[in-house]
Amino acid sequence: MTPRERVIAVYEGKTPDRVPLMLDLSHWYKKNFNVFFDLKGFTEVEQPLVDLHKKCGAVLYIETGSHFDIYFEDDSIQSQAWTDNKDVFHTQITTPLGTISEERVFSRESYSYHIQKWLVRDIGDLKVLEYALTQRKCRPRFDRYQSWANAAGEFGYIYTFLSYSGLGFLISRYMGVERTILAIYDYPAELEHFIRAVNESNLRILDEIIDCPFDVLIVGDNHDSSIQSPGLFKRFTYDYYQELARRIHQRGKYLAVHVDGEMKGLLELMAACGADCIDAATPAPMFSLTPQQARQEAGDHLILSGGIPPTVFGKTGSDRDFIDCVKKWLDTKNQSSRLILAAGDQVPIEAPWERIAMLAELVEQFGTF
């Protein structure tokens, strides 16, 4: 089987000849190839990134830019984004209700942007953001999707990224953990209205792209059950994910959820609401669940894609730790073939290339059915 065929088999509930290997090498590539990190994302195929995946035998699936453009028909809404000469990335949104702005500072050490000024800092800002997000319009651009798919060939199985959910937008992107949790208690009606309204807007965007040529829709909420607790998930996100799954399953497509934090308490809920795959599944020693415990909580049908924590993949883990971690993840294939070997989120920038290149051999040795 080809690398792509293995992934397709797992999604179809079949048993491939070996566990598929998928990697997100985008962050590693930017840092180690000295490529400018543009928060607006890739706008065209990065051939060296594609070639890296082919070189190590891993399927490219994510970080291929947006497959649709967001715009506003209402001229009273303006959204601007730019990087200044001090490596600060600015976002500014103007609506009839006011203007809000965000600042993110680039760190050359971690090759990432840290938020120094949150877009939403009070309930007034929240209303401005809600106004903008609920007025979004969508223009499909699946020519970008097709370009990446063509470039990757049998080493590509390209996911389409939708958006954060309403709660995910607040916690992960625009308000932060502390302000969001406090606001849930201080302004419960306003927070719930925002979350429901944004989720409905996301569903309208989904309807605009649902018949386009993709197989997997991924939502990138960066779940961690110590923050987005099972209680919060059931209150604000469960029904939304259930509706996402219903609509895309009607079209014969699949739903993946990005969970790059603590999985305990969430996997059973993700399976119950209809998600097909958990992306960036990160087990012990970084989080609490062992691979076997993760499989037990997820059940036999939810695809677990991940297995290698960044603490083990990078310099803080030894070669022995790395190999043992991979073997333990691959061992769970004996319980369910709904398994993909991948990084717990992105391959860390300090990961030795030798370890990345080792993965295909380890899968051949320990991941064959």
What attributes characterize this protein structure?
369 residues, TIM Barrel, 2 domains
How is the topology of this model organized?
Elements: H1 3-11, E1 22-23, H2 26-32, H3 47-56, E2 59-60, E3 68-71, E4 78-83, E5 88-95, E6 98-107, E7 112-117, H4 123-133, E8 137-140, H5 142-152, E9 159-161, H6 166-174, H7 177-186, H8 188-209, E10 216-219, H9 230-236, H10 238-250, E11 254-258, H11 267-273, E12 277-281, H12 291-298, E13 303-308, H13 310-313, H14 319-331, E14 339-343, H15 353-366
Parallel strand pairs: 1-2, 9-10, 10-11, 11-12, 12-13, 13-14
Antiparallel strand pairs: 3-8, 4-5, 5-6, 6-7
What can you tell me about this protein's structure?
This protein is α/β, with parallel strands linked by helices and about 375 residues long. About 40% of the residues lie in helices and about 20% in strands. The protein has helices at about 5-10, 25-30, 45-55, 125-135, 140-150, 165-175, 175-185, 190-210, 230-235, 240-250, 265-275, 290-300, 310-315, 320-330, 355-365, and strands spanning about 20-25, 60, 70, 80-85, 90-95, 100-105, 110-115, 135-140, 160, 215-220, 255-260, 275-280, 305-310, 340-345. It has a 6-stranded parallel sheet, sandwiched between helices. The chain has a 4-stranded antiparallel sheet with strand order 4-5-6-7. It is globular and about 60 Å long.
